[in-house]
User: What shape does this take?
Amino acid sequence: MLDDRLLIAAITYGVAAALSWLFVGKTIPLSHRWGIVDLPGPRRAHSVPMARAGGVPLFLAFAVAVAVTFSLGVDRLSLETERLLILLVASGFLCLVMVYDDVTGLSPVVKLLWQFGAASLVVAPRLRGEGHGLVIDNVNLPFGVGQVTLPTWFALVFTVVWLIGMTNAMNLLDGVDGLAGSVTLVACVILFLHTVVHPQFTISLLPAALAGAVSGYLPFNWHPAKIIMGDAGANFLGFTLAGIAIIGGAKIATTLLAFGLPIVDVVWLVLFRMAHRRSPFAADRSHLHYRLADAGLRPPQVVLFVSGTSLAFGVAALLLPTREAKAAAIAGVGLVLLATVTLLTVRERHHPHGSPTSTLADTTEQNG
Assistant: This one.
């Protein structure tokens, strides 16, 4: 039985990876032909226009792979099927809107409103009754508190914040060739293993499909990249990853650990900017991945550091037996970020003009 399930998961992954590789390869020349490109500029590393339409092939590969699972004899409960369709519709809607953003450009506030609209599509079915929609109804708290059932209104708000927060964390992470895709791949592997161990077979096919889509995309996005995912891809990945965590039983702690370093980096920077009366959407090179690049690390080295740290904490999420241990690990993510930022700050004071290799930092859009 387990062998059959792993075979289906492997087929799901393989279909998504093959389709993604095929779609992305076809998208690159079309992106240039249609003018969906990222132009060179002061905050860009590339000196020629870069294809900026990676989001659509990522979504299509994921959606088709998930659809294939229905033809492989995978039985799902009706509510699970409903939630899956809701996630596909909402993530596809957000991806489509952000394609428009990649072509014409939308203000941060307008993009936030569209993200809120997509999140609302996910939670709105709850108005039909309990069990409908994707809503975080319960959270498991450490230190003897145990599972807490959230009031409906708070659960809806908390879910929307979770979805939008993860979406923007991914968007802001998309700053170095291969980084957003690599961290997403790590998070998908961790969520897949989590759902296999518990077990939640039908849920495990979702991170398998998303991992496949990212795997087919990464060869084209690895430094030096031939294509970037743009806002469409980053929003799709972040939103879908957050939704999978909910469908899988609100595995918030596991996702936080696997995606912890980028999330803590984003939260810290937003609070820092607001404390200094700056827009939280301000574009600069304060993010950890930019500072690592400015310190002299090449893009693959930055990817290795961030995704390697994410993998280490993700494995910890799988192995740690108690909520208290996971809470301590989440705190450890913050300490790793604090230590890294402190070391980088000390270095920057001794080398205020940065590293000559800092221009290699990115071929993706600088979103913040």
In short: Residues 2-360 form one domain. The radius of gyration is 20 Å.
